[in-house]
Amino acid sequence: MLTELKVRQFGLMEDVRLEFSSGMTVFTGETGAGKSLLVDALGAIFGARASADWVRHGAERAELNAVIENSDARLQKLLEEQEMDSDEPLFLRRVINADGRSRAWLNGQAVPLKLLQQIGAVCLDLHGQHEHQGLMQPEFQQQLVDSRVDANALQLVKLAFEHLQGARKQLHSLQHQQGESAGQATWMRSELEKLSALDVQEGLEESLISQVEAGQNVAQIQQAGAQALMLLDEGDEGNVRSLLAQASHAIEPAAAYHAGLEAASDLLAQVDALLSEIPPYLNDAQEAALDMQGLQAAEDRLAALREAMRRHDADEAGLLALMEDWQQRLSLLDTAEWDEEALKEKLHKAEQDYCAKAKVLSGLRAQAIDALVLALRPYLDRLGMAGMQVKIELASLQDQSKAWHASGWDDMTFMLSSNPGEPFRPLAQVASGGELSRLVLSLKACGAFIHAPAIAVFDEVDVGIGGETAWCVGELLAAMGKERQVFVVSHLPQVAACAQHQISILKTQREDRTITDLAVLQADERAAEIARMLGGVDAESLDHAKQMLHKGQISQ
Fold this sequence. Notes:
There is one protein chain. The chain is of the alpha/beta class. It has a domain at 176-336. Helix content is 57%, strand content 17%. It contains 19 helices and 15 strands. The strands form 3 sheets. It has a 6-stranded antiparallel β-sheet with strand order 2-1-4-5-6-7. The protein has a 6-stranded mixed β-sheet with strand order 8-12-13-3-14-15, with helices on both faces. The radius of gyration is 49 Å and the shape is elongated. The relative contact order is 0.13.
């Protein structure tokens, strides 16, 4: 509940301070006195977009302060999320500079303007032209119906839709991957075939280099083997082994008499044994033959290996790792068809689950619509719209999966027939501004706006009405004031008479400047103000005004 409001240098309001109580408070005054400016001030303190025009001409800034009783659990939760004290009354402050920039405070602490807007969303229900426009939006109409539906059913549909979307995404991702992987799989298989033909193994390049070099130098190998064999064992003029035998024979007779000769004899025997193992190797080299086919095969394999290593920027170990990775990926692609079938089955089950829950929600909405239309009827009758017929068309788009949403598959449209016998048409095509205003009031009065904010502001709700209908509007607003704090800007004496509190808005001249003042009216002053609203302040008008006040108060 708003308990206090201070406004300085705001439009025509120079310095205004008001204290408020619970119930219905009506603001009255001459046309142009500044009633709508008061509504702007209430919007500004709750974070409405600032306008430089709000700053009084000649002033540097406008300042607004408000005190709010903090008794709403939603508001307390919001403050706790902001890590702010939620126990004390809230002190809101807004300063708007002449250049249109503004700053905000909460309990003396600077806060983002968005926080005031969030508080306003919880605390303030500003009934005006924007709300009429909102009523014509399908989303707003759906909210009115869904506020009367079991929240658990709405949540189940939301969760089922999220599951459905997840299954759709998984299947689409797999199918997209399959499409992209078709060409890639062909390439991987081709590369695997090439590398498999090379029989890649670690050290392969070094082995192939040896084979190629041996083939390219076979004549030199033969010559080296033959020459070494001749020097070692076959030369006529003495070879290494014969010379070694001669040295051994020379030492042998005296070896027993000298340790050095004995050691030398042993070493010569060992050398001879080693030399005897060399001829087979030299024979192989001497008998080496030129294998052109083998040489060409080794050269081709080496070239292919080096090209593969260059192409994939890897050595033999890297190529082996790539081959293993490709084999695994190809194996997964081979099983993708099975995965796709599994995901299709998962999607089918998700669709069935969503359909079941959306169907339940549609049934609950149909019941809520019947209850809402039935509850709305008495208020429409009381507000002078007995001839208006309201229905809410519910179309279930269960056969159009693209139209399914987290809120279900229903399409709801508010339809009106302004007069008996006239066809039903969408709300926006039929209702006038005054009818829309009273329709919104009827919806609020019958409880269609569940969890409505504790502070309600009604501006222009009584446009285009009078007589008994005006009394009904006033009585409904007063009844609403028993549950919420209601502020009403009105030019109708019937509405004013039903209020518990009345504040007069006056435009005066002071030091050659126009100023808007606000005054809380007592009983006699209320009678005088209502008499003015009736058209005069003579004895007859005053008496009539007192009767209206009496009627307005006893009707509550």
